[in-house]
Amino acid sequence: MPLAGLLTAFVLRVWSLDRFPLREDEALYGYWARLIASGRDPMLERVAVDKPPFFLYSLAQVFTWFGPTVTVGRLLNVVCSLVAVLALWMLARRVYDRPTADLAGWLFVVSPFAVAFAPTLYTDPMMVAWLLLALAAATTAGRAWGIPGGLLAGLGLGMAFATKQNALLLAPLVVGALLIAAWHRLPSRGRVYRIPLTLAAAGAGFYYVWFKVWQWDGWRILPAEIPDFWQQAWNTYGGLSLLPWEAWPERVRAWVEVWRWLGGSLAGTLALVVLVAVAVWADLRPGPAAPRQGDASSALPRFWDALFLSYGLVYLGVHVVFSFQPWDRYLLPLAPLLALLAARGVMVLRQMRTAWLRRPAPVLLAGLLVIGGLRAADARIPVGGDHGGWSGIEQVAAYLQEVVPAERGVLYHRWEGWHWNWYLWDGPHGRVYWADPAMLVADLAPNPTGYTRFVVFPGWHEDERPALEAALRPYGLRLAPRLIVRRPDVPRPQFTVYQIVPIGAP
Question: Which phi and psi angles does 486 have, rounded to 5°?
């Protein structure tokens, strides 16, 4: 499976590689990486960074090697996604058997969330790759390449944290894997001391990376208004709190709108649920569920199923009852767990005595998941990167680079600031933020006509233009449209570039 699966995974993940521009957070991460790669701010001391450093410096290194382009940046996560496919196959091979591993690998190859997030600049694909590498290391419960498996698992979890601090939520999964692997691999007399040693090695590996992350943050010389990355993340996302139970039903509805796309469609997601339910049903039946003692497989499949399922359910529950934003990328860590459990369900169906359950049912359910993966590859599900919302931003940026003078030229920005940091890296640099019309006119009031001024309205904020025009009128100014960018499938303009000119001027 690995070679054919990796080739298929690569094709699916690059199918829409250059079709759409960056979304807001992607543009921000790209900008930070570019600051590092260019040498303008190698320690990120002049920007409020809310992420650990590893992904940003990896992206910066890729930009240094191959040039700072959107395609180059996205290919980093494509590679991470391929590593995740291979790591999941290794994990399934150790905890189940080769046929189940092959099937789980293929299901992850076509996983809509894995496919949709691979060609992005989000931190999550790299974090998931480190998670799966940590789980694969945890299943050794001994030594790999002469290094204790617990230490490797801790290092892998630490690297996931160095990529995104949300990886702390993944720690129980890695610890559970270490406990299961150690318990079933070690003789009973050796468990008393070997399991604590394994956990201690994992803790040491995690702490080493944790220390390095905070060491980097401590080396940064930050101005008073910029906190450390942890506090900045807390400020950016408004903190984290337990919500009152009255809010839970609405939270469930919000998360269901995200969860329903895990299979690429509602039918595909229901297929995943059915396959997981089949695996659980098989585990609850009396009778053997584990490989024979001495089998080359790793620990008991029932225990692994219980770990993956219980962790996934608790993970969902935590995101419902705490104030996490209902963002699709937060569910990406569930994609490999669903692939593992769904593969177990398919294997159970294939062993059924009833003919239609043994043959057509697995094919139909797996087929729905393949269709979901193909839809994700073609950017036809609302998950992952941009799907046309920011189409045209490159055209607007190219126009602004031509018409905004380097001297005495001003671009007022409100909604596209992170995009301009990336797309207008080479200028114009005379950019001024405005939060409301009063803020904009306060900036131009001292010299209303002494500068060449532009402002860009996205189509979804065009209804706010009249308020700005009203604020400009007392100064004898108006908004003159200079460029209108449209999408063929949307009746309203996508972007409109306005120049602020005197009333009566063309």
Answer: -125, 160
Q: Structural domain boundaries of the chain?
A: 2-238+245-377, 393-502
pTM of structure? 0.94
Retrieve residue 222's tokens.
């930050």
Question: Which residues lie below 8 Å from residue 22, measured CB to CB, with a gap of 6+?
Answer: 30, 70, 121, 385, 386, 390, 419, 422
Backbone angles phi, psi at 426, to 5 degrees: -90, 10
* pLDDT tens track for 176-222: 999 998 887 766 666 667 888 889 999 999 999 999 999 999 999 99
Residue 228 structure tokens: 């450390």
Give per-residue pLDDT as tens, 331-374.
Answer: 999 999 999 999 999 999 988 877 767 778 888 888 999 999 99
Q: Give the residue from 127, 124, 132, 46 showing the smallest Cα distance to 86.
A: 132
DSSP secondary structure code for residue 242 in this structure: B
Parallel/antiparallel/unpaired status of strands 452-458 and 493-502:
antiparallel
Q: How far apart are CA 416 and CA 414, in angstroms?
A: 6
User: What does the block give as tokens for 166?
Assistant: 């949300």
Contacts 24+ apart (CB under 8 A), 441-445: 441/471, 441/472, 441/475, 443/410, 443/412, 444/410, 444/475, 444/477, 444/500, 445/475
